[in-house]
Amino acid sequence: MDMLTQLNIAIRYIEDNIHDEDELANVSKVTNYSAYHFNRLFYYIADMPISEYIRKRKLSLAATELQNSKIKVIDLTVKYGYDSADSFTKAFIKQHGITPTKARQNGVNLKIFPPITFQIKILGVQEMNWRIEEKEAFDIFGIERVFNRDDMEIIGEFWSECHQNGIYEKLFEDAGEGDKIVNGACTINALCGHVATTDDETFPYMLFALKTEKSKTTGYKCTTVPKATWAVFRENDCDHSECKIPGLFQRAYTEWLPSSGYDKTSGPDMEIYGDNFEEVWIPVIKRK
Length: 288
Fold this sequence. Notes:
The chain is an alpha+beta fold. The protein has helices at residues 3-16, 21-25, 35-46, 50-68, 73-79, 85-96, 155-164, 167-174, 245-260; strands spanning 130-135, 138-148, 190-193, 202-210, 221-225, 228-236, 262-264, 270-273, 277-286. Strand 3 (190-193) and strand 4 (202-210) form a beta hairpin.
């Protein structure tokens, strides 16, 4: 199955199991993706974490029930998986702007969020600068932090912290000649990426450099990036004052992958920052 078909199957699965917390936690099982990669695909294509989408759907259905039945708020709390009526009410107000009790009134405005449908989009003639790279395994070292799977938006804080305390600059110094990626495909200042998955709830993010004989790796995490086929997307003429990486990821997932003949496969997504360019590296496999 192609990526969009799998995502649409997942959406139907969510609708069929919207009241079952255990099933919702395992939505990725109806796709060919791990929980980590499914959540990442969903985030870039839907522009929100899967947890936020499920929350919006639950609160939309709850609002419809309040309008069309006499169900009690406490029963809705249990039905949609909230720990207490207070937490349900706070979430309801955040989405709809009114309390569940007021939502019963005629003429109130409610923010109903319908199920998503994933489709290929034709977005005009903006070109994409991409290539396919075949790479043998290579060793990297750096600073790693583990994030919750819905924390994609706060990774920038990790970058800022590493700059403020000088860790980023020290890593660059300790890389020695580690600023040349394997086989001389490009020259970089630093690499960072998701180098492995831990479990369904978390993922490690690593600020890293290529390990060579001249690298000083004491005190850093060392790991190996496995052999892979990579789809590489580049933005040129970058001064890094405004990071292009999120936009590259989003275009790769929403525009290139659905119609490329390739599927996302297991392995790290990587970001590369050069003197005047930024790149996204995504491990892929030729679609059968």
